[in-house]
Write a structure and sequence with these properties.
mainly beta; about 120 residues
């Protein structure tokens, strides 16, 4: 079993930056793919960014490309989402998810373990 915990959310003004962290415990996740998703009130949970097991391949949604960066520190079992130039439309609960195949998936159904989420609120 893998436990996933997100942290780093908060309330910021538009244009600010935040770094979300995803900690995985219970088993080494060095061979797993990791994704960040978000869900705004009344909307579906959507893919934001993903990274494959080696960290060599990343993918972003169109809405965050150029502003967000996903990275991983395998030795620490940590994955990060650096979010710059935040906009009010980035407001959502952000979830970290683990894909045991190690690939880079963009569908929620491909992920096996999920955290509880961390709230990000961007004021205008």
């Amino acid at each position: 079993q893998v436990q996933v915990v997100e942290s780093g959310g908060g309330l910021v003004q538009a244009g600010a930056s935040l770094r979300l962290s995803c900690a995985a415990s219970g088993r080494s996740v060095g061979n797993y793919g990791v994704g960040w998703f978000r869900q705004a009130p009344g909307k579906e949970r959507e893919f934001v960014a993903g990274i494959n097991y080696s960290g060599a391949v990343t993918k972003y949604s169109d809405s965050v490309t150029g502003r967000f960066t996903i990275s991983r520190d395998t030795a620490k079992n940590m994955v990060y989402l650096q979010m710059n130039s935040l906009k009010p439309e980035d407001t959502a609960v952000y979830y970290c998810a683990i894909d045991r195949t190690g690939l880079l998936a963009t569908s929620r159904r491909d992920y096996d373990y999920w955290g509880q989420g961390t709230q990000v609120t961007v004021s205008s």
